Amino acid sequence: MSKNLTKRSEDYSKWYNELVVKADLAENSGVRGCMVIKPYGYAIWEKMQAELDRMFKETGHSNAYFPLFVPKSMFEAEEKNAEGFAKECAIVTHYRLKNDPDNKGKLMVDPNAKLEEELIVRPTSEAIIWSTYKNWIQSYRDLPLLINQWANVVRWEMRTRLFLRTAEFLWQEGHTAHATQAEAIEESVKMMNVYADFAENFMAIPVVKGVKTESERFAGAIETYCIEALMQDGKALQAGTSHFLGQNFAKAFDVKFANAEGKQEHVWGTSWGVSTRLMGALVMTHSDDNGLVLPPNLAPIQVVIVPIYKSEEQLEAISIEVNKLMVGLRKLGIAVKFDNRTTHKPGFKFNEYELKGVPVRIAVGPNDLENGTYEIARRDNLTKEVVSKDGIETYIQNLLETIQKSLYDRAFEYRNNHITEVNSFDEFKQLLDSKGGFFAAHWDGTAETEEKIKELTKATIRCIPLDRVEEAGTCMFSGKPSVGRVLFAKAY
Amino acid sequence: MSKNLTKRSEDYSKWYNELVVKADLAENSGVRGCMVIKPYGYAIWEKMQAELDRMFKETGHSNAYFPLFVPKSMFEAEEKNAEGFAKECAIVTHYRLKNDPDNKGKLMVDPNAKLEEELIVRPTSEAIIWSTYKNWIQSYRDLPLLINQWANVVRWEMRTRLFLRTAEFLWQEGHTAHATQAEAIEESVKMMNVYADFAENFMAIPVVKGVKTESERFAGAIETYCIEALMQDGKALQAGTSHFLGQNFAKAFDVKFANAEGKQEHVWGTSWGVSTRLMGALVMTHSDDNGLVLPPNLAPIQVVIVPIYKSEEQLEAISIEVNKLMVGLRKLGIAVKFDNRTTHKPGFKFNEYELKGVPVRIAVGPNDLENGTYEIARRDNLTKEVVSKDGIETYIQNLLETIQKSLYDRAFEYRNNHITEVNSFDEFKQLLDSKGGFFAAHWDGTAETEEKIKELTKATIRCIPLDRVEEAGTCMFSGKPSVGRVLFAKAY
């Protein structure tokens, strides 16, 4: 298996596009802007889903399912949200095809089957969900309402890239309703923290927690909390958002509750989501010029065993030993695969598992059988060592933990080396191109300045970090006063 | 909690509609024909998903994800399939909304954002998937290709009913490709058997396995294998189908492979699916006039514990005992809930859990504490007994198994009492109305007779049972010769 993978240093973007396809994660479909998530990619997504779902349930949320379609009148009820998504909506206008009289064997839209009201394919589900919550919430006893949905959504993007920006993508969207502002804010912050925990401890991706500026906020939100990650090319990637919606949707859909004193009040809302975009973040955080590098937590195959043999007898002897090893590894919950295909050479297999990012590769040949050893190769740092078979199961278990941690540490070090304080716009522009990463700079707090910096540099304010230190300064662009630094970066 | 549930004997259909809503399974949404699956209903669906997913993986299938939209030209490539679904397609024609100049704050479809080619919201995914398989299959080494997808699909139904017939529903669809006809047929039969196993052993719903007649076959299939269940009102419900597609889709999408001799051949296909319709089958197989009856395998709460107390001290003493019991039950993997709400009386709680079909209810009061006992109530047969707390955990575990089995036995007995052999059309018509159920009758094998019987009685041929005995006879309608009996019934 020849990889023919473009090097990251040559063309990072090309490297990414090639890797996603060659490693069997996803590919473009025959439908403009929509991707096919291939089995290997989907298996990784399933691992993300399982862990997130566990975390959501542990924090008291239940899953439910709401319709794919949103009638136009319902969609436009919360004006800011509608305005924010109007330009990227797929719209269903008809409900029937008929035979095309001018084209034998072809179909055409039946003009007699026009919908009375157009249906929007959900770009996000606040409208449909809040229109439902109206009937579910009467009293403070019905609150908080803590619901999550796993679903597909559609946003008509003109320039698409696998996982990062696709017309259809998969995600989860949490939608909660609360009796007080404080509780709703607490929930938004809690879910941002769940996302940060997941990104860092499960995906080995370090993130900065912060809030978005007004212009980067979710349409219809009062505050958008976010986690921001840094890719190897120095560009940032928004990895998850959690919105405090205030009473905006409650007012738009007239969702009220009777408080303990019997008085009617509008409820307070949040929504929060992560998507298949995380697959892109995963690839761009850890992988290298040889292919994918998967943190053990996310690897569909954590350990692959490749036999090295010259005769059938050797393969048989190796298989007996390997089968014992596999039983031992599986007992520890380790996902192991024995690649005993006789149609491919070991070198081909090594290349394939390197490309697919399998964290640990074990090679075993006649010499190993004789010596009671295995050759263990790590995908993350490409090192190899020969290890005795005594206690090998525990050794592998520990090694997987070591790899998980070391991937995080490596990404964390890279990220920390790429948060640069800058104090002038010239310095910012120069380092933005030469070094990349996050830039902590003073900003005057106006959307106007933010917009101008974006026009001139393509960099945006990724977030106002939650842990930022109050510090009087002057805006690097306008020279006006500022109370603290925000993080700028070019972003995906 | 007053149930006010219509009795089944009064109006079965009304009973069903009310129960689905009152038991918090689902409700109609503000979008025509689309339902909201509520958290309690969705939790049951999640249990079905988890078990089916395990069974699919155990039989060698992987999950993947394909686009929601199918371009019209792709959709119409397999003509029979296209024709079969053309009349119920939701069609996306535009990709943008804009402000309505005549209506401040309202949006309208932007006429300048018309798609060059209309997109069909998938009613089923053969077209999009086979257009993808073309690139995935080159050689016999790429076969078999065994893929499943969990997804939403849309079929524009005019008359909808929660779970049974909705414009949008959730399902899984398996799509496999094989080198030979025999292998593809084997796969179709295997998956029908997986569905039957799931229905019977997990959902406690007995089914008849069979094949569909030509007129009831999936559009584009050569053979449709199915499992048919019987509801309490004597109507049948198709619970799952598995299609042998022959080379129809391979030819429509030009999917060929090089066989071992290097010769190009079209591949052979199957597809198979079950949907949220199974939720309807679940309700209508087991539930009663008091509400849902859930088989323990599918119950989100398997055991509920209700404290009976007059003072806070009593509740405290009970709680101490109950917490120990819960630890013990959870160790055995039993989903248990302690309903210690002080806002509701025991009677209210009893009613609620009866309505929601919780298989086992435990009541515990001061007398029980004194005597070392619990009062155990079964939801399936509404019996109660007082049981010593010694060994209670194992007792409950066994009881859950007993309930699972006894629900199956009850449904099996009902179903077997409702397969009636009939030999004349008059007898058939009379018993169809007075008794209901399946009718094993001779049929001449023509679509014409089948259609006439349907017109006159609303009954259809549910299937030609796989285990039917060859038996020369004469068609109950036309008097023409027949080689064996088929099963007729009115159906959902």
UniProtKB/TrEMBL annotation, chains A, B:
Gene that produces this protein: proS
GO cellular component, one term: cytoplasm
Functional description taken from the UniProt entry: Catalyzes the attachment of proline to tRNA(Pro) in a two-step reaction: proline is first activated by ATP to form Pro-AMP and then transferred to the acceptor end of tRNA(Pro).
Similarity-based family: Belongs to the class-II aminoacyl-tRNA synthetase family. ProS type 3 subfamily.
A Pfam family matched in the record: HGTP_anticodon
Keyword line: Aminoacyl-tRNA synthetase, ATP-binding, Cytoplasm, Ligase, Nucleotide-binding, Protein biosynthesis
InterPro entries for this protein: aa-tRNA-synt_IIb (IPR002314), aa-tRNA-synth_II (IPR006195), aa-tRNA-synth_II/BPL/LPL (IPR045864), Anticodon-bd (IPR004154), Anticodon-bd_dom_sf (IPR036621), Pro-tRNA-ligase_IIa_arc-type (IPR004499), Pro-tRNA_ligase_II_C (IPR016061), Pro-tRNA_synth_II (IPR017449)
Name this polypeptide is given: Proline--tRNA ligase
Reaction(s) catalysed (UniProt annotation): tRNA(Pro) + L-proline + ATP = L-prolyl-tRNA(Pro) + AMP + diphosphate
GO MF annotation, one: ATP binding
Keyword Ligase assigned: yes
